[in-house]
Design goal:
By secondary structure, the protein is an all-beta fold. Helix content is 0%, strand content 53%.
């Protein structure tokens, strides 16, 4: 299992970023995918998940209405669109697969929200 995140960076409060996670080493379209984040000095926390077909998503209350997860099974990629970013969204963002014996984490991508 290999997961590679990209798209992080520095953005002003209220701005947007789209993160990508390219997957390989497993049958991507057969697995739900998740996003997590870890802020400095805090535990890693769940951000959201998307079903394997992409027809259903679920989000943490802290990002609901601002973040959207999507996937392109033809490209083996899952996305995290982040809008209305807040300084409290600053964290390293990770994609994850953990289902039916397949488990893996990416290396993470840093998101910083600051003026």
């Amino acid at each position: 299992v290999q997961l590679v995140e990209s798209g992080g960076g520095l953005v002003q409060p209220g701005g947007s970023l789209r993160l990508s996670c390219a997957a390989s080493g497993f049958t991507f379209s057969s697995y739900a995918m998740k996003w997590y984040r870890q802020a400095p000095g805090k535990e890693r926390e769940f951000v959201g998940t998307i079903r394997r077909s992409g027809d259903s998503t679920d989000y943490a209350d802290s990002v609901k209405g601002r973040f959207t997860i999507s996937r392109d099974n033809a490209k083996n990629t899952v996305y995290l669109q982040m809008n209305s970013l807040k300084p409290t969204d600053k964290a390293v963002y990770y994609c994850n697969v953990d289902q039916l014996g397949i488990q893996g984490w990416g290396q993470g991508t840093q998101v910083t929200v600051s003026s």
